[in-house]
Batch of 4 targets.
Target 1
Amino acid sequence: MLPRSATNAALAVLLASILALPAIARTRPHYGGTLRIETQSDPWQIPDGLARRLVLDTLTALDDSGNAQPALALRWEAQNAAHRWEFQLRPNVRFHDNAPLTAESIVTALDQVCAAPNANCPWRAVHAVGSAVIFTADNSTPDLPELLAQTEFAIARHDASGTYDGTGPFRVTGFANGALTLAANDDCWQGRPFLDSIEIYPHRSLRDQWLDLSVGRADVVDVPPEMLHQAAQQHLTVLLSRPVDLLALTIVPQGALSGVQVRQSIALAADRASIYNVIFQKQGEVTASLLPQSLSGYSFLFPPDRNLDRARNLRGGSSTSPITLSADDTSANLQLAAERLALNLHEVGFNIQPVAGIHPESPLQLRRVHLEAASPRPALDELLAHLGQNGTVTGTDPASLWQSEQAALANATVVPLLWLPRAWATGERVRDLRLSPDGIPLIAGASLEGSP
């Protein structure tokens, strides 16, 4: 017979186990249910469209450290000093219409990507050999596996109606009542997702998003970085990424801005601190470097401080004819940042005219560039490609990357300003949602509490 003390201890353990059962049940993922997402953006946009990420797959995927992991490709090998790469495909993968994924279908999809205007394909040619996809490049591309994880290179087919067809965890079922609807892909090579379906409501105002979240009509909504303090005051459950969006001013080196000293004058006149403190409410980090400090470790070597006296000297007697400045998206805060930059440049003697909306022909453009890569060299390669820089990144060590970045910024056609995070608020019934390395919700791994 057990002593009384041992009996009491055993009963306590049993009682604790019984009380813990409801908590365990609450945290165990459930299959089923429909997740409702509201966002200001287009769900198909490149690179951060939510639907694009759920419907389409890439040859590789990035882990939390930014290293390439198998996805549609199981393994790969570099040859000829990384001028040639061979990717072996995962077998028995099918598109949503049940057509088999083949090396030929991947080559067709990537050729379509590279034929698009402003495509940033880092290879010269791609072709199929059996179950392998072969890439050849003019330059050494040691980070090609990481670059192929970018959603720009997601593998898509178009069905008869023109809808995207992919191999991802969800398939498109339609667009009705303002919502794009996706259904779980039961035969997905990654395994069936927990959710039965997803409704994505695009182009929703932030006011409507937050109202719907508060009354349970939405499960996941946008939180712009400048509204993180407000989200905290409202006790919202927020997922916050590292800095993943570069706010930069790009300068077309033509006409009144053809001289490098004039462009350097603009860079020195930019008041990054006021944009950071006032407009974006001290979220992210001030930068004069292309890479964030968390990736490079050297961004402090690019001083972000204003120097109005030197800016005026460099501008000299350059033309004061009007120069237009536009923002590459229509968000209110980017427009405010453009207006603040215009005031900064007026102090130096430039005649800057901010224009509302997107105007690709403007000599000055304020751009928000999303970074998917999560390791230094692929990140710098990606940013230079998206910013239209022709410099080649050499080496992977910090000194080599710093030299490559310094060379890319020397002509002052790109002026980095801020690095900003991504944030999302979630409703009470959402479970196990986390963010990808570039701050996009990993919906395929989420579940809903109470789903059958």
Target 2
Amino acid sequence: MEAAQLKVEFLRLLKEDEEFRYAVAGLLGFREILDAIRSLQEQVAHNTEAIRALQEQVAEHSKTIRALQEQVARNTEAIRALQEQVRNLQEQVRALQEQVRDLQEQVRALQEQVARHSEVIERHSARIEELARSIQALGARWGILAEESFREAMKGVVERFFGGEVRRWTYHDSEGFVFGYPSTIEVDLLITDREHMLVEVKSSVSRADVFELWRIGQLYEKLTGVRPRLAVISPFVRPEARKAAEELGIEVYTSLGL
């Protein structure tokens, strides 16, 4: 076979016969190249599958990240709400602290008032003791003199220790409020800048005298709208009269056991 014919036949076989073509390629070193290409193709396919798996993982991670971001946003909002609540509580605490300070100021003011009242009570107690001594001295001095004389003597004592001026309060009780029948009411009245005081001055005081003064005090308040202090002054107050006076809130000034 001539070279030209051999060449034509060789080319035909390469073109038409795959096995021959691979044989020639193997002889020429192409088989290794083809195997490498196939290996690379397989590797690319494997890598593509791995990339697809990674993409799926990334997608799952993206979903997880979005969920976490939403949770963070919710937590952030909850924190803001808690911070607002804390600020409100702090405002309330400050308001309560102000109220406590105000109450402390009021307590201090009340304590000062109590201290002043205590001083007044001490002064009154001293005056009452001196009044008792005066009553005792008057009782010893006047003895069994008429009650009117004793009243006149005590008038100066009352004005001295309580201030103000003592005068006689007279009222015709046409309704019988005090005794249950119409009568004329007479009692000593002491009016100071701060209060009214009805004073019954007698040489001796019975339970009936105490109750009578109490009813007169009710009548006085009914007529004037002013609740008076009530007091009996006597060198001798019967025990039952003293008990009644305590129950009715009537002050008792006497030389016997004041």
Target 3
Amino acid sequence: MKIKFWGTRGSTPVPGKDTIIYGGNTTCLEMDLMSGKKIIIDAGTGIRSLGNELESHKVSIDIYLLITHIHWDHIFGFPFFSPIYQSSTKIKVDGYNLCMKGLRYSFDNKMGDGFWPIKFEELSADIQFINKLENGYLEIDGVIIDTIPLHHPQGGLGFRFREGKKTLVFLTDNELDVAEKSFNDYIAFCNEADILIHDSHYTPEEKREHKGWGHSDYQSAIDLALRSNVKKLVLFHHAPERKDSDMIKLTILCQDLIKRKNVDLEIEAAKENSVLVL
């Protein structure tokens, strides 16, 4: 299993000289399974560059697209995903129960005279909603994918991928509640994961001013990783105002916290175009 980050930012894209290292595009991950099958997670602005990369290989595209939820920063890159304009492209969509509605509305949500020159129905690609995850799990070439509800306004889904003996958990836009039951549910879901990619949008100080906004602070993400016996924690959904210099300091701070606790947990912050291999 190989994972590449095409978008790591939360809320809104922030391109520029201050986000070169960690990236300015919003959520999009590419996952390559051992079988060669490709899964994309979310359609934030990072999916545009991913689409260009896929088309450069000059082969027919047959992929799965999993959507965590339909807030703008997770879907508004979809109209710029160039493979959707090719008749040879096949996309199986699953995830949050309103994901197809969100993808359609990024073209025209009937609130105006249209927000895109092409209608969703006019796209050339074969796009199908398979709706497996709502009622259970999805299996792709031996990889088991199951879900957990996100603690986020209007809801959403987190994903767990199990390929052989390796496990990856992806939980973005997730506010880790102080309620023990809720926290215990996430501990069970993440238990013994090789890699946990988790929302760490806020610092603990910022979080106190944004309770109920649907995002976690880095300390809560670390607590979850430690209590779940996770091997590696990847901080994700970086706040748009967080510059590269801020991200470097925050990452070092988190790593120092782990050193002082004298526990075995690897921590890094997600960087656009970086790759993880399991």
Target 4
Amino acid sequence: MRSKAEPSGRERESGRGRFAPSTTGRAHPGTLLAALLCWLDARSRGAEVILRLEDLDRERTKPGYAEAMVDDLAWLGLEWDGIVRQSESRARHEAVLEELVGRGLVYACDCSRARIRASGRRAPDGSHRYPGTCRARRVGPATWRTEERALRLRWDRMPVEVLDESGLDLSGDPAALFGDPILRRRDGAFSYHFASVVDDAAAGVDRVVRGRDLAPSTTLQVGLQRVLSRPSPSYRHHPLLLESVGEKLSKMHGAVDVSALRRRYAPDELCGLLLAFVGVVPQGERCMPADRVDDFDWARVCTRDVVLSWSPAKGLEEAS
């Protein structure tokens, strides 16, 4: 559904953004902040923005998670130019994979995670670089669909240049940094990186706004875009909401989900609170997303991650 929020006094830009949450649980404060910043970025430029529900993880996606995500975002006042489920794009994913098989770029891999970890090399996103153990096991057009092993892309070294709008230099050689990426897992599900690149291109997404925990994987995704001859969008990675877990910090989702937040706050109260944490509005201001379209500016968004705490009595607070 098209939002009525349009920038006033600005020339409307063509283009499309997307918010693409995984549906492996209820939304949490970090989910809502990421949705708000993605939505405000697009609406402030007069661009479209779609909601893509990334529901390919068969083990972790449970009935009702996708519907709850849509409902939680609507409760916060976010409207979309389209809502799609990634699982409904399987035919597209298969067609692109078949194209790669025809080019001789796909092989079957039965390496366990333990075997890959034993290679001892970390990739930028924290995973382990695949050492190419099974590269000789190429699959052909007659066999790939029934192959029970994971399918990987066999690609060559190719340096890519990627400069994030926030200033991060994400340039590098994805083959050297990550090794050969999985395209389809052994359970038949398509990989996150492969499906994301294919679906972004199919939807005409030319701008990606997301949390900076995903920044290290951008080099890999741009490499996939090159191999598939798909255009590369512009990227902006924003700060995260974190929580203390023992002596470490992690993304804020374990302490509270949106069901508890909805009992504690009105939509405009929570929207204002989340935007205040990252500097978009003053502390204590209540607002709905559409109220902030005209004056949204990335220069106001803080560059540091924000550490929060949650308690039913005090709600969300910035940790001292």
